[in-house]
Amino acid sequence: MIYAILSGLTLLDVILFVVAMPHIRIERSLPLERFTLPDNATTIRENIDTTFTCDTRNYGYYADPENDCQIFHVCLPIVFGGQRSETFMWSFICPQETIFNQERFTCTRLEDSIPCQESAMFYSLNDKFGQAETEEEQPTVVESPMETSQEDNSLEPATRPY
């Protein structure tokens, strides 16, 4: 049956058919692809360890001690419909001669940073994202400068005593 189908085709038809067929994409696990680093990352840091994972981590920024804190990661766990969860990870590399300071969440010179191997002790600072530290930092409710007039329900500027 296949011979009957192919017998009426020219060689060009067969080539076009094969080229147009969908190809199965083979997953090639290049180590740096997992970290989504820029292509030139190895010009800043020659050997990059790719063992860091965001599994079981809260949302936040994390120094990577295995890469001497020159690389840091942003972890974002998401729960879909209360059933399935997935954690997204984005990786960044600090400029030459700087490391990620876990205490300050920024790349700083080595002498201005905490020791890289102590970074894990500061991972808990990520738990404070979205929280006000003191009562003074709590958002305040500002009343609208417009008041509703009792007579015609139109908005009029509020009167202020000067």
UniProtKB/TrEMBL annotation:
Cross-referenced SUPFAM superfamilies: Invertebrate chitin-binding proteins (SSF57625)
Record's keyword annotation contains Signal: yes
InterPro entries the UniProt entry points to: Chitin-bd_dom (IPR002557), Chitin-bd_dom_sf (IPR036508), Scoloptoxin-like (IPR052976)
Signal peptide: 1-20
Residue numbers spanned by region Disordered: 129-162
Keywords, ordered alphabetically: Signal
Pfam family of the protein (one): CBM_14
Phosphoprotein listed as a keyword: no
Name by which UniProt lists this protein: Cuticular protein
Species in which this protein is naturally found: Nesidiocoris tenuis
